[in-house]
Task: structure prediction
Amino acid sequence: MKKFEKMSGWEFTVFFLMAICAGAVIGIGGAASLLANALLGVEGKLIGAALFSLGIFAIVAFEMRLFTGMIADIPTLGLKNTWRLPVCFIGNILGVALTSVVVYFSFLGETVSAQGATLILGKLETENWALKAFCSAILCGALITVSVKSVKFAPQKGLSATLGVVLPIIVFAFCGFDHSVANMMYFYYLGECSWRVVGYILLGIFGNIVGGVLLPCITLLKEKSLIKTEDK
Result:
């Protein structure tokens, strides 16, 4: 079981900076994905999904702090450490905002921002968008957990940890499942501040949590059952 100790001021600063960095690389992957979708049509969706996986790969490789990745630790986090989740999310959306601004004022700005706004607006204007957003976020959360947990479990089975990290991300990005952090880039470009936008953001967060904790909870129950079996 992973233990979480009390942070010093310096450790908190590093934690928050790593959360900002995580948001920034998610934004870069998101920008690349939007560009591929805008320029390459149908094929661009798959290429964009592969490009988006760069963000998660960098986060895992450099041990950055991503909200949807930390969700997998909720079953072992403990109540005293739950503050890490909202702090991480705030850092993530700051990082995404930073990347969004830089991309917007770059040569890619017009194409990427238009594609991002169109993508999220299409979802908001779909019938029963709230239910669809929640279910979509659940599926995304589950795949993110598979991705971040693959670093530990894949090598034990003789499998590639890199492939284990990247493949679930390509699947969720290709399917267009809702990632609460990545979505912030699209909302920034949409430029709309309304109750439906707030609702969509909250549904994305809660859906990611529901989907993200399923596998860790089942794994924890499995470990406990094995311990009880050995004790008999």
